[in-house]
Specification:
alpha+beta, PH-domain like, 2 domains, five-stranded antiparallel β-sheet, 6 helices, about 35% strand
Amino acid sequence: MKLVEDRRPTLASWPKRIYQWSELPQLFRPALEEWRGEGLPPGNVTYIPQVRQGVGEEEHAVSWWRGQVLLQTLWRGGVTRLLIPQGAAAIRYEVQLLKCTLTIYLKNGDQASFSYNKVKEDQLRPVLSLLLGRPSGLSFPTEHPEPERLGWLLEESYGMYHTALLCYRLGERLEDCLYLRGKTGGLLWLIQRTPDPEYFLGVMDRGLAAISHDSYSTCVLYAPWESMDGAELVPERRGYSLQVQAAGGKMTIPVQGGQIEKVRNFLDHLSRENDQISQFH
């Protein structure tokens, strides 16, 4: 089998903000003609090339204009287009080292995803904000608005204290939260001393942000209240799990024996304070 050697520089696979329309591949341009006629600047378009050349990977062009997001995907010579006019039903945001993957769950039940290099994530922040139903110019916070409320979390886990800032992409106020530490066991722990996985559920004013974090990746399920399908403690073959579901997106969090009462209290409080999800628990 002939191997294809990718001789491009590293930057060639990174997302690129478009500064001149000639920089955008021709196949992505026709879908933007109407927006361009309305005044769309090229800086509102990000081109995401193949990560590896010659292996049949997708390429994307992500654009935003007047509260709408357009995701174009080029694969095998054809372009598919997905227009998202008023935000997504739910979002799954995952980071593995420098690879970010955004999975978009739509209100009609469909879903789409694309990946990009985290180094250039700042230019895609307007897109993520619009998909979450927030203003395109929103600045993501770098510290908790009320740090004194989470002093206990800082003592429990310095890493999760800062990772929990991801919750504020969904809403401005953290109204309640749940922190759980998982358990890494078996041969992997003995060999690598892998840190225990951690989980954080942030009850925001606009919905629930469920975070899973370990030594390799961070994953967040953003679930606006109107899209929630479930938040419940589920018996498993060995113990329990906390399952959060929204518009097709799902996160399963293992619950240790000593954490069951803590999770039940959290869900009870969640259902009392939020009429929109009281039917799920």
